Amino acid sequence: MPPARVGLAAALVLVALALQVTMLARLQLPGATPDLLLVTVVALALAHGPAFGLVTGFCAGLASDLVPPADHAVGRWAFALTVVGYLAGLAKPEIRRSAFVPLIVVSLAAAASVLLYAALGALMGDPHVTWLALSEVLPTAVLYDVVLSPFVVPGVFVLADRAEPDPVLRH
Amino acid sequence: MSRDTRRTRLLLALLLATSVSLLLIDQRGGDRSPLAGLRSAAAAMFGPVEQVASAIARPVSSAVDSVSTLGDGRRRAARLAKDNQELRRRLRTSDEARNRAAELDALLRISGAGRYRVVPAQVIAIGPAQSFSWTVTIDAGRSDGVRPDMTVLNGDGLVGRVKTVGPTASTVLLAVDPDSSVGVRLERSMEVGFTTGQGAGHHGDLDLRLLDGQSSVERGDRLVSFGSQGDRPYVPGVPVGEVVGVRGTPGSQTRTAVVRPYVDFTALDLVGVVVEPPRTDPRDSVLAPRPAATPSPGATVTVTPTPSGG
What ipTM score was computed for the predicted complex, to two decimals? Predict the structure, then answer.
């Protein structure tokens, strides 16, 4: 993997994670927290394909599992975001088709990540995961992440194209 | 192409297997996990990053509500609007300073009333709601004397307890988390029980279970922390909340009620970590005085200080 690509992804993931816990969580919107990290992972996966998407997802998820104030079992977000990064990367050939493709991918990814994370918790008997909590978090997570993506995805595409020119990322 | 796909799938399987093994090793997290070292290393590295990011993000997130558009594009209007915004920002900043002074005052009052020795700290990061747990990061750590299982409070009452400690930052498990279980006592009675967080979807209310099924509990009853053995994780006397509803199961093994906490967990900012518990139980003295004071005739209360060497 080219170093420019890896460096850019690492920087974006760290910035997204820091902004997420310090700023977006502080907004205290009803339901979920806007998941800047997820949208960044999806954008990087769309830009570089499934292999890069799943590695980015794994690293971002692991960081999210370890960075304070995380308190759940390490590996939960890593698992969820690896799957999401891989699947989002599979959609890379479709991004030229329409401007709505990233939005659709982000909304599916948001739902999938929350469900996978909750399912892993439920399997391990986590008392936090209840139908009520899930019903409150899931729809708002999809909504907020879709709203975030027009601000994030094009920016990530521009940066990725600048680090490593790729005509697919230019409109 | 197909070889590339096969390699990608192999990588996918490998990383998923790694995630699952981490999960199995770490199980429910906490300090006894073999991965606790990894967690505190992450806290050591990322704590300072959060501190800086939080300092930058604080004014930004408080400005989000008042973002205004810049007129119709004419330069003059734009400049005036900009001036206006700058003035508003300054006003807000002084508001913010005043708020923080008030929070600090309240914290001083509560720690003075309960004789708690408190290290003040700032909430710098909040766990995303998607993680389903209620935790925050504060900017005080081992170097400030913070240790795991210390009580965290603010000017309104009990916030939670310290879970993991890094060099300059620690993670606090809030009292609304379903993993939190706080021993409590009803004001002016010996009824004891414990509160548990209900998690998302309950307006941040707590569940109260009283140990004695015959005990009487009413709306408006106030609760203070009972104090854990050795004052860890909860010191006695910290106001917890007020009963807002009783679930009617009289005569059952335990009585349950709904408690509205005094602390607003969605607007946490300045908190204090109790680094030294009070020498004697402060009883109900930390609770704010009741507004409607109707003296009941005949009831004489004599308070005798009984120091219990602790």
Answer: 0.89
Nearest CA in chain A to B57: A23
Measured torsion, CA atoms of residues A156, A158, A159, A164, in degrees rounded to the nearest 10: 120
> Where do the domains of chain A lie, and which CATH numbers do they carry?
3-165 (1.10.1760.20)
C-beta atoms of A32 and B129 within 8 A: yes
Contact B129 A31 (CB under 8 A): yes
CB pairs under 8 A between A and B: 197
Considering only CB atoms, which chain B residues are within 8 Å of A28? Answer: 266-267
How, if at all, do strands B192-197 and B181-186 pair?
antiparallel
Rounded Cα gap, residues B179 and A119, in angstroms: 18
Domains of chain B: 39-286 (2.40.10.350)
Measured in angstroms, the CA of A64 and the nearest CA of chain B are apart by 10
Cβ of A120 and B133 within 8 Å?
no
Q: Which residues pair with B210 in a beta bridge?
A: B193, B255
CA–CA gap between residue B197 and residue B85 (Å, rounded):
41
Taking an 8 Å cut-off on Cβ atoms, the answer to whether A32 and B178 are in contact is no
pLDDT tens for chain B, 310 residues: list them.
466 788 999 999 999 999 999 988 887 555 677 788 888 888 888 888 888 888 887 766 555 544 433 344 567 777 788 888 888 877 777 777 788 888 888 888 888 888 888 899 999 999 888 888 899 999 999 999 999 999 999 888 999 999 988 888 999 999 999 888 999 988 877 788 889 888 766 678 898 888 877 777 888 888 999 888 888 889 998 999 999 988 766 666 667 889 999 998 888 889 999 998 888 888 777 887 776 555 555 555 555 665 554 3
